[in-house]
Design goal:
Number of domains: 1
Strand content: under 5%
Radius of gyration: 14 Å
Largest sheet: none
Structural class: mainly alpha
Number of strands: 0
Shape: globular
Oligomer: single chain
Helix content: over 70%
Length: 128
């Protein structure tokens, strides 16, 4: 499981840089994480994939107003790799960090969320 965490961490760093530059991410970089998770956890993958599909349908009907589809991909990978409690801690840390960054930059438009997810991912494992 450690190798999957390492792959996901490096992928998060790459996607955070991409999100800062272009305000979009390439979800194809997450494919190695998906496949390695499938190989190790086939039973829980089906349930997680079902929930992921429902979330994407919900996201489609909300017309992409408050979170990007790439952020949902990253959150799904993180959900597969951690326990539900750690996932909630990770998401809360990212949201608080995002609020802080948004406040400090005095922006009125959208701010990239993947850098906050990345910093909080490393913070989660630094604290654990």
């Amino acid at each position: 499981m450690l190798i999957i965490h390492l792959i996901f961490s490096l992928t998060l760093l790459l996607l955070a840089c991409q999100d800062l530059k272009t305000k979009t991410i390439n979800g194809y970089y997450l494919i190695p994480v998906y496949f390695s998770y499938i190989l190790l956890n086939l039973k829980t993958f089906w349930l997680a994939s079902f929930c992921y599909g429902l979330w994407l349908i919900f996201h489609y009907f909300l017309a992409n107003t408050w979170i990007g589809a790439g952020d949902i991909d990253i959150l799904f990978c993180g959900f597969c790799l951690t326990s539900p409690i750690n996932w909630l801690i990770w998401l809360n840390m990212a949201c608080y960090l995002q609020i802080l960054i948004h406040y400090l930059q005095h922006r009125h438009g959208p701010t990239p969320f993947v850098p906050s997810l990345t910093l909080s991912w490393f913070g989660l494992f630094f604290l654990a």
